[in-house]
Request: fold
Amino acid sequence: MTRIIADISVSLDGFVTGPGPGPQDGLGTGGEALHTWAFSDDPDERRILREATARSGAVVLGRRLFDVVDGPDGWSDETGYGAGEAGTPAFVVVTSSPPRSVRRADLDWTFVTTGLPDAVAAARKRAEAASADRGADLDVVLMGGGATVRSALAAGLVDTLTLHLAPVVLGGGTPLFTGGAPRTLAQRNVTVTSNATHLTYEVVAG
Reply:
């Protein structure tokens, strides 16, 4: 069964970037500390990343995040989705208009201009097709940015929320949560590693 999983790293004070993020500095000031766990040699952290990447049938991201990962200092042949793990799922970008060109044209990009629900639906179809081809259940992963994950939660599109809680206080940046309607979560797993605490919740009610 294909699940919709929102998966994002966050600081102790609730930010998914540091202050002043932009196309040339997507994580903002100090934001690199959020993803230390994803680039470490800790075997548990490598396992968490490898398992998540292996189950990714399609990945949804917002336009701002796309501009960062497809920018000059973005993903490379050495480091892309999965931070070095072998991961080349279909990528679905939510945007008001497609870009004029794509630097990483070797990756499978789909640009959806009709809103987040349609993007998630398109990603689900791609993940289900990949599941059939591979003979294993694959998921849709919402990798961000923060506004995309927040909007998906508010719209009731998310089945599972995975947070990688980094031991850092950024003091500002892009918040993951900014209020909104209450939402009930059921804690399913907590894994503590050397550089983060990995929390998995099932979204059970609005």
The two ends are 22 Å apart (CA to CA).
